[in-house]
TrEMBL record:
Organism of provenance: Candidatus Segetimicrobium genomatis
Record protein name field: NADPH-dependent F420 reductase
């Protein structure tokens, strides 16, 4: 599980590249800088190289021998930390390696949540933006543990 500040993402992943070879890596990175939270322009943020890519896509580039999956972006940390209540919501997963996504889906089911295959790793560009929406909704309704649930998947 990669859960690092976005500012340190490149440096940390470069340092662990060899150790992740052949392993499933779940990138949960979300850019929550003050400018990202304001998000006035409506345009996707740019990577350090200037390309519109997700942190997970950047992880895939930096960890070429790892099996990268993006996920857990819409899962509330306070909800996961509250062991007295069962977790709720869906965990959206993006990745190009079907076996890696299934491995992560198994982990999601083990914590009694529902995995949802949200497509290829390129979809992480969208997935990584959803926490901004959830922060807004949580503030508006004075909550801390809202998440995403896909209706109609039974």
């Amino acid at each position: 599980m990669i859960t690092v500040p976005s500012e340190a993402h490149t440096q940390i992943l470069s340092a662990i590249a060899e150790a992740t070879a052949g392993k499933v890596v779940v990138d949960t990175t979300v850019s929550f800088t003050e400018s990202a939270l304001r998000f006035h322009s409506g345009r996707p943020e740019r990577s350090r190289t200037g390309a519109a890519v997700s942190a997970a896509e950047e992880a895939s580039r930096l960890l070429p021998r790892a099996r990268v999956v993006a996920g857990f972006h819409t899962v509330s940390a306070p909800m996961l930390a509250d062991l007295a209540r069962p977790p709720h919501g869906d965990v959206l997963l993006c990745g190009d390696d079907e076996g890696a996504k299934e491995s992560v889906a198994h982990l999601v089911r083990a914590i009694r949540m529902r995995p949802v295959d949200a497509g290829p790793l390129a979809h992480a560009r969208i997935l990584e933006q959803l926490p901004r929406v959830l922060v807004t909704i949580n503030k508006r309704y004075r909550r801390r543990d809202l998440g995403i649930q896909i209706a109609g998947l039974d």
